[in-house]
Amino acid sequence: MFPSVLLVDKPKGLTSFQVVEDVKRRFKVKVGHTGTLDPIATGLLILLLDTATRYAEFFTKLPKEYLATARLGEIRDTYDAEGTVVEKREVDITCQDIHSVLKSFIGRISQAPPPYSAKRVEGRRAYELARKGLSVPLKPVEVEIFNAQMLECQIPQVRFLFCVSSGTYIRSLVHDIGLRLGCGAYVEDLRRTKIGPFDVSKAISYERLMTLTDLQGIAIPIWSALDFMPAVELDFKNADKIRKGMFITLPSYTKEKLFVRLYEGDTFIGVGVVEKNRLRAYRLLPQK
């Protein structure tokens, strides 16, 4: 199996870990993922196959787009439909109120992860502690909301589109919007539609994937999946220097810490990093 990327449309009810394990067992290949989805959520998972797992960080950091349906008037402990109702509140607001509040969340914000999340607290998953009724002190983190739109408004149900930075919890975002409105809110339905340049419309459904006997024709070579990075072509001499851990000078590059795809001729050899016009290896594929 060559290092590659697999786009999977996850169904509701499965964890991201279950999808990874099922693909691993069925196709006998090393598999990693680049960002989890809650069991209640559907949509795009990017799986990395074989030595493509070396490049997980570049996919994990990509912005993400979600479609979220929120239910107003209740606060739940998990911030989603699977949780227990903590409080019910009257919904005495208009769609214009929601639109106005939504605008205040665009930009960089401080966000606390949900108590029921995979964040680690003293070596334990937060959801493990929360299920035991223990207090889960999760520190707020800074995230960025690039876009927040209200697509449909039929109070108490509202449908949103969010484009956010990596690390943003949509459950927390909807919960915080509900608190700002004063009526409370939780996520009723959630679907991840994009990760960076990758769209769920190009993904294979989990159900269809599990009927296949091989991944030919649906796995994307890692060098193609990374084409959101600039490419640098090296001759044999400079490629050899890079493999030996040496620097080479690239006068045309002036940005600080720019990651680039490296090719020796037409052959992808890995990812390099340019700092102050000097190129060095960052993650190279194993040499055959």
Q: Which CATH architecture of the largest domain is right? A: 2-Layer Sandwich
SSE run = EHEEHEEEHEEEHEEHEEEHEHEHEEEE
Number of strands: 20
Number of alpha- plus pi-helical segments: 8
Active site: 38
Pfam family, one: TruB_N
Protein name: tRNA pseudouridine synthase B
EC number: 5.4.99.25
Your description of this structure?
- The chain is an alpha+beta fold and 288 residues long.
- The chain has three domains: 4-62 and 197-223, Pseudouridine synthase (2-Layer Sandwich); 64-195, Pseudouridine synthase (2-Layer Sandwich), CATH 3.30.2350.10; 229-284, Archaeosine Trna-guanine Transglycosylase, Chain: A, domain 4.
- 21% of the residues lie in helices and 39% in strands.
- It is built from eight helices and 20 strands.
- Strands 1, 2, 3, 4, 7, 10, 11, 12, 13, 14 and 15 form an eleven-stranded mixed β-sheet that branches.
- It is globular and about 70 Å long.
Can you describe this structure in just a few lines?
With 288 residues, the protein is of the alpha+beta class.
